[in-house]
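Good morning C.,

I know you're traveling, so I'll keep this short. The sequence:
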Amino acid sequence: SHDFTLEWPQILGFFGKLGRRIALLVSQNSTNEQVTTSEITPCPRAIPGEKATINNVTYLLIHEATCSQLSSVVTVRLIPCLYTLVFLVGLPSNALALWVLATRAEKLTSTVFLMNLAAADLLLVLVLPFKIFYYFLGNNWPFGEGLCRLTTAFFYGNMYCSVLLLTCISVDRYLAVVHPFFSRSFRTPAFAVCTCTAIWLCAAILTLPLTLQQQSYPLYGVDITLCHDVLPRHEDDGYYFYYFTCLITCAFLVPLVVMLFSYCSVLRALLDSGKRYSYSMKLTALVLFTLVAFYTPSNVLLLVHYSSYNSKLYGDLYISYMVSLAISTFNSCADPFVYYYVSEDFREKVRRRFFTSSPAPCSQGTHNIQWG
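The tokens, ready to paste straight into the viewer:
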């Protein structure tokens, strides 16, 4: 009797666990729901989520500590306001720059690069309304999976395409200033067109993986669909890790080194020439400053995200990264003013275009347009 009394709580506990297990199995079978979650592994940028398949619909489950970030004031108010400002300033400025360069400027090598830069910035700005609506709706994507993939690919593709074109402009300036006689034979508009074509193809290839992977997922328990901001921990996490690392290296770090070398060489050559180039030196310094100020924070945060185990698991850098990513789009607004509107020659062409009926002859000024 004494032994039976000691074992009785264990027997009750056993049958209690068995009953709960049977009730769980019956509940799952009756509702025809099958829930599977993946193993926790390092995840790409933004917030990591666990995949859950319920009634043949794949949902994402996120840590409750990070769920509040999706509805924070920074996410649903500040970020879309920043994108709205970029859209309102970048659309007319880049459209006007592209129009004037295409219709009034002499077709030189630098003109081709500047036209493509304005086109890349304009395409980036045209994608922003989708992201603006997405964040204002509380991180809810109503446009479907296909448009989510295209928007994500166009956003990153045109952003890094602008960086590559800025690199080409810096190399073109380096060759024109430091090696003018050596580069005269191949610095032609036709060569610039071929180079820009290669850059557009490179940008398309770099962003192609984003169009091949699912980017939008409904969030479990909340009636919203996320687009790229929350990505699942699954068997392709290593794929995303190497993809973003390659993207940052090829489309930002290497171009940044090339631009620093090119512009430092140009500055040194101009300094050796005397004070009459002081305006060009200030403009060159301004170009470097805008590039570093706008693009470096988001790329650095992305690298820090990969090196931090806690950020990989819970997405602690989500808000910081998304704000810095929105700030990086301001470079699309700065490009027209830095490369075009600081030039009196460009402003004169705009005045002639709008306020005179007869076209004025093209001046020597695409180099003037770029460097004043």
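Safe travels,
E.
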